[in-house]
Protein backbone atom coordinates (compact mmCIF):
# COMPACT_ATOMS: atom_id res chain seq x y z
CA UNK A 1 0.00 0.00 0.00
CA UNK A 2 2.77 2.47 0.80
CA UNK A 3 0.98 4.21 3.67
CA UNK A 4 1.53 3.30 7.26
CA UNK A 5 -1.54 5.24 8.44
CA UNK A 6 -4.49 6.40 6.33
CA UNK A 7 -7.73 7.82 7.63
CA UNK A 8 -10.32 10.52 7.43
CA UNK A 9 -10.07 13.59 9.62
CA UNK A 10 -12.53 16.27 10.69
CA UNK A 11 -11.77 19.78 9.53
CA UNK A 12 -11.82 21.23 13.06
CA UNK A 13 -8.95 19.03 14.29
CA UNK A 14 -5.61 20.49 15.24
CA UNK A 15 -3.09 20.22 12.44
CA UNK A 16 -5.57 20.22 9.56
CA UNK A 17 -4.52 22.34 6.58
CA UNK A 18 -7.19 25.04 6.28
CA UNK A 19 -5.70 26.26 2.99
CA UNK A 20 -6.84 23.14 1.11
CA UNK A 21 -10.36 23.11 2.57
CA UNK A 22 -13.34 23.42 0.23
CA UNK A 23 -15.64 26.20 1.46
CA UNK A 24 -18.94 24.60 0.41
CA UNK A 25 -20.60 21.78 2.32
CA UNK A 26 -21.70 20.11 -0.90
CA UNK A 27 -19.94 19.92 -4.24
CA UNK A 28 -21.06 22.73 -6.57
CA UNK A 29 -22.43 21.55 -9.91
CA UNK A 30 -19.67 23.36 -11.81
CA UNK A 31 -16.96 21.49 -9.88
CA UNK A 32 -16.27 18.06 -11.38
CA UNK A 33 -16.58 15.04 -9.14
CA UNK A 34 -13.20 13.85 -7.94
CA UNK A 35 -11.64 17.32 -7.58
CA UNK A 36 -8.93 17.34 -4.94
CA UNK A 37 -6.49 19.61 -3.16
CA UNK A 38 -3.25 18.42 -1.58
CA UNK A 39 -1.27 19.91 1.27
CA UNK A 40 2.18 18.74 2.36
CA UNK A 41 3.79 20.20 5.47
CA UNK A 42 6.37 17.53 6.19
CA UNK A 43 7.67 15.07 3.59
CA UNK A 44 6.06 12.17 5.48
CA UNK A 45 2.57 13.63 6.03
CA UNK A 46 0.09 14.29 3.23
CA UNK A 47 -3.31 15.96 3.66
CA UNK A 48 -5.90 15.60 0.93
CA UNK A 49 -9.33 17.16 0.54
CA UNK A 50 -11.30 15.29 -2.12
CA UNK A 51 -14.88 15.83 -3.31
CA UNK A 52 -17.39 13.20 -4.24
CA UNK A 53 -20.78 14.62 -3.28
CA UNK A 54 -19.36 16.21 -0.15
CA UNK A 55 -15.74 16.98 0.70
CA UNK A 56 -13.83 14.09 2.28
CA UNK A 57 -10.64 14.87 4.19
CA UNK A 58 -7.77 12.40 4.40
CA UNK A 59 -4.58 12.50 6.37
CA UNK A 60 -1.87 9.97 5.57
CA UNK A 61 1.60 9.22 6.74
CA UNK A 62 3.57 8.24 3.66
CA UNK A 63 6.54 5.91 3.97
CA UNK A 64 7.29 4.39 0.59
CA UNK A 65 10.53 2.76 -0.46
CA UNK A 66 11.15 0.92 -3.67
CA UNK A 67 12.82 -2.49 -3.73
CA UNK A 68 16.17 -0.92 -4.50
CA UNK A 69 15.90 1.28 -1.38
CA UNK A 70 15.18 4.58 -3.11
CA UNK A 71 12.28 6.80 -2.08
CA UNK A 72 9.44 7.27 -4.53
CA UNK A 73 6.62 9.79 -4.86
CA UNK A 74 3.23 8.26 -4.10
CA UNK A 75 0.29 9.70 -6.02
CA UNK A 76 -2.36 10.89 -3.56
CA UNK A 77 -5.33 9.60 -5.47
CA UNK A 78 -4.00 6.14 -4.71
CA UNK A 79 -4.59 7.13 -1.09
CA UNK A 80 -8.31 7.41 -1.79
CA UNK A 81 -8.38 4.08 -3.63
CA UNK A 82 -6.47 2.34 -0.83
CA UNK A 83 -8.81 3.82 1.76
CA UNK A 84 -11.90 2.65 -0.13
CA UNK A 85 -10.45 -0.85 -0.56
CA UNK A 86 -9.77 -1.10 3.16
CA UNK A 87 -13.18 0.31 4.11
CA UNK A 88 -14.98 -2.03 1.72
CA UNK A 89 -14.68 -4.90 4.18
CA UNK A 90 -16.13 -2.79 6.96
CA UNK A 91 -19.03 -1.70 4.78
CA UNK A 92 -19.82 -5.28 3.74
CA UNK A 93 -19.76 -6.42 7.36
CA UNK A 94 -22.03 -3.57 8.47
CA UNK A 95 -24.46 -4.23 5.63
CA UNK A 96 -24.69 -7.95 6.44
CA UNK A 97 -24.96 -7.35 10.18
CA UNK A 98 -27.79 -4.84 9.81
CA UNK A 99 -29.89 -6.95 7.44
CA UNK A 100 -33.11 -8.63 8.43
CA UNK A 101 -31.24 -11.71 9.67
CA UNK A 102 -29.91 -9.89 12.73
CA UNK A 103 -30.67 -11.55 16.06
CA UNK A 104 -30.06 -8.33 17.96
CA UNK A 105 -32.63 -6.45 15.88
CA UNK A 106 -35.20 -9.28 16.02
CA UNK A 107 -35.26 -9.62 19.82
CA UNK A 108 -35.84 -6.65 22.10
CA UNK A 109 -34.18 -6.85 25.51
CA UNK A 110 -34.61 -4.59 28.51
CA UNK A 111 -31.11 -5.13 29.84
CA UNK A 112 -28.35 -3.46 27.86
CA UNK A 113 -25.83 -6.25 28.41
CA UNK A 114 -28.14 -8.79 26.77
CA UNK A 115 -28.40 -6.54 23.72
CA UNK A 116 -24.59 -6.26 23.62
CA UNK A 117 -24.31 -10.05 23.82
CA UNK A 118 -26.75 -10.53 20.93
CA UNK A 119 -24.78 -7.95 18.94
CA UNK A 120 -21.61 -9.98 19.53
CA UNK A 121 -23.40 -13.14 18.40
CA UNK A 122 -24.47 -11.31 15.22
CA UNK A 123 -20.88 -10.19 14.70
CA UNK A 124 -19.64 -13.79 15.02
CA UNK A 125 -22.29 -15.09 12.61
CA UNK A 126 -21.44 -12.49 9.97
CA UNK A 127 -17.72 -13.20 10.34
CA UNK A 128 -18.44 -16.93 9.96
CA UNK A 129 -20.42 -16.25 6.78
CA UNK A 130 -17.62 -14.12 5.31
CA UNK A 131 -14.97 -16.76 6.09
CA UNK A 132 -17.23 -19.54 4.74
CA UNK A 133 -17.81 -17.57 1.53
CA UNK A 134 -14.07 -16.98 1.04
CA UNK A 135 -13.31 -20.68 1.63
CA UNK A 136 -15.92 -21.78 -0.92
CA UNK A 137 -14.64 -19.29 -3.49
CA UNK A 138 -11.14 -20.67 -3.05
CA UNK A 139 -12.45 -24.20 -3.69
CA UNK A 140 -14.47 -23.00 -6.72
CA UNK A 141 -17.74 -24.15 -5.16
CA UNK A 142 -21.05 -22.27 -5.33
CA UNK A 143 -21.41 -19.65 -2.64
CA UNK A 144 -24.71 -19.58 -0.70
CA UNK A 145 -26.53 -16.36 0.05
CA UNK A 146 -26.50 -14.90 3.52
CA UNK A 147 -30.08 -16.13 4.09
CA UNK A 148 -29.19 -19.68 2.99
CA UNK A 149 -26.18 -19.68 5.30
CA UNK A 150 -28.32 -18.55 8.24
CA UNK A 151 -30.88 -21.30 7.51
CA UNK A 152 -28.05 -23.84 7.44
CA UNK A 153 -27.07 -22.87 10.96
TrEMBL record:
<dbReference type="Pfam" id="PF13843">
    <property type="entry name" value="DDE_Tnp_1_7"/>
</dbReference>
<feature type="transmembrane region" description="Helical">
    <location>
        <begin position="112"/>
        <end position="131"/>
    </location>
</feature>
<keyword id="KW-0472">Membrane</keyword>
<dbReference type="InterPro" id="IPR029526">
    <property type="entry name" value="PGBD"/>
</dbReference>
<keyword id="KW-0812">Transmembrane</keyword>
<keyword id="KW-1133">Transmembrane helix</keyword>
<feature type="domain" description="PiggyBac transposable element-derived protein">
    <location>
        <begin position="3"/>
        <end position="129"/>
    </location>
</feature>
<protein>
    <recommendedName>
        <fullName>PiggyBac transposable element-derived protein domain-containing protein</fullName>
    </recommendedName>
</protein>
Amino acid sequence: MGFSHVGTIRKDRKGWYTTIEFTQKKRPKRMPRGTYRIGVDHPEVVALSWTDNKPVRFLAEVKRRERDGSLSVVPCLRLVRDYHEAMGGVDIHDRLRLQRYSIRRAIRMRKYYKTIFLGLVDLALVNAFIVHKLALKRLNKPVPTHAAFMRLL
